Amino acid sequence: MTTAAVFGCTGAVGSNILITLLASDAFTSVKTISRRLPKSQSPKLEALEELDTSKWGGMISTLSPKPSAVFNAVGTMWATAGGLQNQWKIDHDLCIETAKAAKEAGVTTYVFISSAGTRGLLSRYVPYSKMKIGVEDAIKELNFEHAIIMRPGMILGERETPKAPFLEKTIGSLHQISPAFQDMIGQDQKIIGRAAVAAVCIAQAGKAPSKYWVLEQADVIKYGRDEWRE
Questions:
Q1: 3-class secondary structure for the chain?
Q2: pLDDT by residue (tens digit) across 155-198?
């Protein structure tokens, strides 16, 4: 029996991770901790609503059954957060806090949704990339039994608040011209969610290529679409 917990369950990727977990026979219990309740419902879902994000990490140890896997798909936009400093508190500080709490609670597998290009040539000068790098490095130092870093490209598909509506729509329509070209730029949120769940199943079966496993865009497509089985 496997229990998973999801942070960021109301976002584009997190909601699809949740949908995939609820549909999977590999997970018998799913917990979510969020500022608002997810739309998904299931007898095996326990959704906890907590507006104070500083309490999220401490809530992991109170979950029963204890999750063996935690998915972190937390993320916000500069404008939504009210500036870079506030975005840093969520996309960097909160993510590290929950990772540390997960480790202390005995979680064996930790998944973080990062971003393609995080380790690019100029990434250390880009605030968004610096946030992702900081979280990735912290997770690696925590030495989980299995740590999985997802680095998808542009997140495609419908969402409540598009980050770049015109660009997302343009990239999303590229599959009509060249699916391979679209694959190099962005992936549908459903594919990313499936890939994250598939990676956990692979890791917990002892088949991950390394204990700190980074999945780039091609891996996301491989596990979330090309090799995905319902």
A1: CCEEEEECCCCHHHHHHHHHHHHCCCCCEEEEEECCCCCCCCCCEEEEECCCHHHHHHHHHHCCCCCCEEEECCCCCHHHHCCHHHHHHHHHHHHHHHHHHHHHCCCCEEEEECCCCCCCCCHHHCHHHHHHHHHHHHHHHHCCCEEEEECCCEEECCCCCCCCHHHHHHHHHHHHCCHHHHHHHEEEHHHHHHHHHHHHHHHHCCCCCCCEEEECHHHHHHHHHHCCCC
A2: 887 756 655 554 445 545 545 554 565 666 789 999 999 999 99
